Amino acid sequence: MERSVTLLVNGARHELGVDADATLLDVLRGRLGLNGPKYGCGLGECGACAVLIDGKAARACSIRAHTVAERAVVTLEGLAGDGALDPVQAAFVSAQAAQCGYCLNGMVMTIRALLNAGPVPDRDTIRAALKFNLCRCGTHVEILRAACIAAGLDSPELASIA
Hey, what CATH topology would domain 2-79 get? Predict the structure, then answer.
């Protein structure tokens, strides 16, 4: 059964008729054409579908779209502003932290949420935050380096990341 829902995505208001079972990921990709969040496992386990809901990382494949009505949803596309990449996106580019890129959305959104949460994290906090984001290509060292750059950690931290 379809219901009317107001979604606030990347700063824009969307009035949509949404099926009660539709996931946020289905609506973001299928209805709004936002391809940053990816369909990975469909169980909220891999992180490819991560978005920010009220500044916190959430798995869009396991959240019903209607449950986030009137809450601020940000996708990868919504991080950049005024023609400039978000510092986390820029760090991932600088560290060349992508191989196939499929996991990248989840990695970037998880680090953005971590940095939104408060003080600059240390390397162990970053590792813990990324623990449930899967990368099958093996770019973990580069991803951790990018996260450290985004967090503003100094060179010794970067040198000992591996």
Answer: Ubiquitin-like (UB roll) (3.10.20)
